[in-house]
Amino acid sequence: MPLLDHALYALVIMHGFWAGPWMLIIIALGAAYLGGRAVEWIPFTRRIIERREAEERG
């Protein structure tokens, strides 16, 4: 249980940093970028994107 106490204490302290509006904006931008990159890396979604682009080209 002492380990859990330390982990919860660290989470409570970090909550003050993460709850700030600037940090949330930075996290959101980072998550959006990484999400876009992940879609390109996953072969299944890459094929869907390539099909859509091919249909748009005609």
From TrEMBL:
Keywords per UniProt: Membrane, Transmembrane, Transmembrane helix
Top-level division of the source organism's lineage: Bacteria
Residues passing through the membrane, by range: 6-34
Record flagged with keyword Membrane: yes
Name of the featured protein: Uncharacterized protein
Organism: Streptosporangium becharense
